[in-house]
Write a structure and sequence with these properties.
The protein has 336 residues and is of the alpha+beta class. 17% of the residues lie in helices and 20% in strands. It has one domain: Clavaminate synthase-like (Double-stranded beta-helix, 4-Layer Sandwich), CATH 3.60.130. Strand 10 and strand 11 form a beta hairpin. The longest helix is centred in the last third of the chain and has 13 residues. It is globular, with a radius of gyration of 19 Å. It binds fe (ii) ion (FE2). Fe (ii) ion (FE2) binds next to loops.
Length: 336
Amino acid sequence: MSGNFDLVGPLPGANFGGLLSRHGAHGAHQFIAEAERDPAALPRALADSQGLLLLQGMSAMEGEPALLARLSRLFGTEVENYREVLTPANMVHETVPEIFLVSNVPPANRPPPRQPDPPLTVDGKLPTQFPHRKGWHTDQSYRRPPPDISVFLAVVPVPQGQGQTLFADGTAAYAALPPGLKARVEGLQGLHVRPGTGRSRDSVLAGETPRPLGPLERPQLQPVVRMHPVTGQRALYLCESGQMDWVEGPFVGLPPGPHGEAADLLFELMTHMTRPEFVYVHEWTRGDVLVWDNRCLVHTATWFDADKERRVMWRTTVRGNPGTDYAGESKSWIAA
Ligand SMILES: [Fe+2]
């Protein structure tokens, strides 16, 4: 790519993604200043890298968190202010409200995901494929328009071998769909809902009564196949049990609920999308920033030993270019 940035990727260990560095760069300050001088360069690098970009050596952001918001602004017109959307105050950075805290220590106190059952595959490896690996989602798909990009900084990662983030490439997975499945998802719409409303598959199977939904948290329709507004490529756009609506969905036009054709189709698609060739496992190093495109990737987090380890990660969410499917829409989660 042009300018002062060089893709030194591909991302090691992945069939997609890029590793970006800058010749002679010394940390986040210089990197971001360079990026701001050529503001199209980083978004172009992200698109050229199939939606996943690793930037290393960004730990100067820890002492100057506004740098993470500055970096995020290069990827879209709007970086979410988490104080404006009634996010619990303990989950939001004290001085930079664009930063969402993903952490098991105060003030956020968020526990890690559960271990898969069994914890390892039969050949002793980290489980990555659905349904053994659970939690696959794309950020905030319960909103319309959904966000484009997430940016994630490792402030205090846990030791490698736990607390990884896994990504699956929805573009490659769509391209590799068998013709029969490709025909079935054409024009299909998924129904996504915020976790914690009693509408997840587990909640429905457990017989929980879903709580009444407010007007700003109604389940939202999303195309199962999204056309990427920058690359023009089609990608699977799906979540699994926790962020689809298993009361009225998961798919429009198929019998709703946790059993039957719709459930079988979602399981088949998620199992396909998380096949090993589409998945990347990121082991975090302090100062890593991962930028991912929610329009064409899904991701999930893994367990870590929260009794022994503290983990502090900062996330921003960037929106502004969801594509023509969403043209002119007002935000589903904010009162008109
Ligand atoms: Fe996420």
